[in-house]
Structure formats: C-alpha cells, structure tokens
Amino acid sequence: MYSFLIKNGRVLDPSSGVDTVMDLAVEDGVIVMPESSSAAEDVQIIDAAGCLVVPGLIDAHAHVNYGSSDNSFQAETGCFPSGVTTVLDGGTCGVSGFQNFYNSVIAGSQVTIKSFLNVGSVGQTSHLNPEELDPARFETEKILRYCEKYRDNIVGIKLRLGAPMLKNHGTGALTASVQLARQAGLPLVVHMIDCPLPVDEVLPQLAPGDVYCHVFHNTGDGVILDKNGNVLPEVFEAQRRGVLFDVAHGRGGASIKMARAALDQGFKPDLITSDLSRFSLYRMPAHSLGYILSEYLHLGFSVEELIRLSTETPAKAFLGNKAGFIRPGAPADLAILRVLEKPVRFTDYLGEVLEGSRLIRCEMTLKSGEPVFRQTDFF
Predict the structure, then answer these.
(1) In whole angstroms, what separates CA 59 from the centre of its chain?
(2) Distance between CA 105 and CA 355 in Å, rounded?
(3) Which top-level group of life is the source organism from (predicted)?
C-alpha cells in the first residue's frame, strides 16, 4: 500500500534526463511507479500541480556540527524547509572532535550528513579562534587514519586559506594540505575568502575534483577577476582541467557584482551551495539554500540548471552517485518545489542589489518516504 501518491507534478531528474508531468508513489520508504489499481482509499494524495518534483537537494557546503561548534545549526532545522535531504558539512570539524560529531550528530540525524574533514585539528569550533594552519602541527597520521575509518562519511579534506587562519604560513599550508588529500585519495576543498595568496599560486596545485570555494568573494588576493574586471585565464584553465568552482554563498562569500561580471564572460560555477551557519541561517543575505538558488535564477541560471547543480553534480563529485536521483526502488528523498511569481530584492554583503520577480519555495520534503517538512497551505 502506498504511503503517498504524488500526482500532477513536473518530475525533474537531471541524472536520468526525466522532465515530464507524471505521478510518483512512495511505498515502504522507497519510490515506486504507481498503478491505478493499487491506490487504496486511505493513501495520502499530494496534488503537486504547478510544482517541480525533484530529488532531495544536496547542499554540499554548510555547517551542522550542532552543539560542539558555535557556528553550526541543527541540520533538520536548516535543511528540510529548503528541500535539502543530504548535507555536506564544510569542514566544521577536525580530527580532535570528529568522533563525537559522528556519534552525537551524524549518526542520529534525519538528514544524511557527510563531511569534509578540516586539516586543523580543532576545526571551526570557535568563530573567534580559528584553526591552526602551521603544517608542522597537522596531525597527518591521525587524519589519514580517520579518513580510512570513516570512509563512508568523510568525502574530502577542507582547508580555509584565509588570512586569519593562514597567518605567516604562506604556501606551506596549501602544499601540505594538497599532499594530505592526495594520500587520503580525497578531494581538497579550499576556502578562498580573504586569501593572501593570488589565484595563480593556488589553482595550479589543485587537481580535478578539488574545489575552489567562495568563487565570487571579493576580498583579499584570491579573487577570480583581474584589476580590469576580466576572469583570469587560470580560472578557465582550471575549470577545463576539472577543478570545481563553488559559490558557497554564506553571509559574506558571494558578491553580486563579481557574479554578474564572471557570468557575463561565460564563466559559470560548478556548484551552488549555501555555506549556511548559525550566523547566516534565515538571516540576510543568505537565508537558505532555496533563497540562494532564487538569487542565481535571476543571475541567469535556468531552473533546470539549478536543480542539476544541487543534485546530480554534488552526487557525482562527492557521493559516488548514491543520491540525487529519482528511480523506482530508490529511497524516497524528494523535494516538491514551486517557483512563485513575486517581487523580491536580493542584497549582498556589500550592499549590491539584485531585483527579482521569482522565488523558489519548498512546498514539501520527504526523507526516506517520511514527510519532514510541509507548508501549511500545501494540501
């Protein structure tokens, strides 16, 4: 017997190329193709007319080490209302606290949580006291041991290459982190806000699958535009090599002006993630992943592109294609989204304004077939 019958929605699954109005059913926590003879009288029918029915979204950068880091939020609170069913913690935790994070947060969360492990042992435990990036103090053996022990969960290594963390360690922290990631067989995610190193010193060290994080930030030397506003050739070259560029919006990681300039020159990021933290969740300018996707809808992305960058792309990059799809027999991780026609004003951390007319709103989220979020007027 079906738990839910989702009718009349536009099913959009970039991984399989499906884009059509059709019905889906949920039975015993998995997706099934409905048969008219199987619908019982007590089945919960969801009329998704005018909505997108998409794979549960994947937010590949947020901070959810709730209870052990002062910048983290509870995953269920920040993810489900935007249709996010899988979140990748963006290096909140280093090896000194990872076991506790795994046991106390990850194991019991309704949201599927995967992790980027911070190269700094204490990670982002304290907002005012950043991690130590002296390569001599990296616990390399322990990091590699944890990457193997938690191979099912740790999907990459995180390095925050900002001036407050880097201090006087120069390129040493980057070189050591690259070597560590290669030894672990995992991608390296490099935070570039307020980076004192120029792009042409960072990008050559990154390999296919590594991530350049906060691509549209506008502070420090690690910006992707030259003094004339042109996208640096090294950026295009790195993207051609397979380096991934992530928006990682957050409260201070994405300049509208920078994004416009780069997009006008044909550069598009590979990932659009939230970088949400306790300090930015449901606060402007970031608010939520749905709000951020709406902003990029007005910067020239299609709805189809946005769904792909929030499902298929991160699943392929970090999750072995084990999420981000709709197919019979798969866990029913689903988001029902509606594109509302309404005036909206997006303002970035520098005060730049983008006027819009559409907002992507999550009407309902299902995780393993269970309803975990539903708008009060969606019935």
Answers:
(1) 3
(2) 38
(3) Bacteria
Q: Are strands 334-347 and 353-367 parallel, antiparallel or unpaired?
A: antiparallel
Question: What are φ and ψ of residue 89, in 5° steps?
Answer: -70, 130
Burial class (CB in 10 A: 0-12, 13-18, 19+), 221: middle
* Tokens coding 344: 């909206």
Q: Which residues span the domain enclosing 101? A: 57-319
Q: Give pTM, 2 decimals.
A: 0.95
- The amino acid occupying position 373 is F
φ/ψ of residue 272, rounded to 5: -120, 105
Residues facing residue 341 across a β-bridge: 358
Contact 62, 274 (CB under 8 A): yes
Q: pLDDT tens digits, the chain, 379 residues: what are they?
A: 689 999 999 999 999 999 999 999 999 999 999 985 455 567 899 999 999 999 999 999 999 999 888 899 999 999 999 999 999 999 999 999 999 999 999 999 999 999 999 999 888 888 777 788 888 999 999 999 999 999 999 999 999 998 888 787 878 999 999 999 999 999 999 999 888 899 999 999 999 999 999 999 998 888 999 999 999 999 999 999 999 999 999 999 999 999 999 999 999 999 999 999 999 999 999 999 999 999 999 999 999 999 999 999 999 999 998 999 999 999 999 999 999 999 999 999 999 999 999 999 999 999 999 999 999 999 8
Cα–Cα distance measured from residue 352 to residue 287, given in angstroms and rounded to the nearest whole number: 16
Residue 254 sits at the vertex; the CA angle it makes with 101 and 119, to the nearest 5 degrees, is: 35
- Domain assignment of residue 180, yes or no: yes
Q: What CATH number has the domain bearing residue 43?
A: 2.30.40.10
- Structural domains in the chain (count): 2
Instruction: Look at residue 347 and tell me if it is in a domain.
Output: no
